[in-house]
Amino acid sequence: MARIGTGNQGRIILERFIVFEGIDGAGTTTQVRLLAERCKREGIPVFTTGEPTENCIGKTIRQILKGEYRVHPSTMPLLFAADRNEHLYGERGILSYLEKGYWVFCDRYVFSSLAYQTIENDYQLVTELNDRFPLPGILFYLEVPPETGIDRIQNRETKEIYEVLTFQEKVYQQYRRVLSTYQNSGMKIRIFDGTEPMERIHEEMWSFIEKFRY
Fold this sequence. Notes:
By secondary structure, this protein is α/β, with parallel strands linked by helices. The protein is 45% helix and 18% strand.
């Protein structure tokens, strides 16, 4: 069964659920992969996932992010919340894996919505949409300067609408606000220097979660 606790702010906290956050180009996807590979070598059951998801709602979001469709800015937090709801509670969702004893590593979650969708929408509106979702037991945040993040994604074949320096600078500042908001939530929050070598970051992450394996 999923191990569930209650944070200091009254929010449900899901143990063995780890979220990786950062601006575009921060390296979250790489760290999810490295940590999952390490867990599998150690015999730890792990499920890796991310947002937007690969379900029908997530695929629609990805098309919008690629610029294939244009929607009103206020539509985006609604779509992400719907995608997240199915991601958590759906037949093959996060909760189903936690209940089977898996660790779940998620590339982006509630905190991305609060950092990205609040650039063009009221912060309180986005907060209210996401307040009902449980929090992860651990939040890993990879901090990199916006210029570094943009430089890292220059060679991507497909650019998304948020992948411009001026927007990423705003997201970077919003992440600071988000992290301060959840400082006393009961989650274990760890901030990493995302400009460090990826192997060093990985070892620090592994050392951190090892303490909570049992």
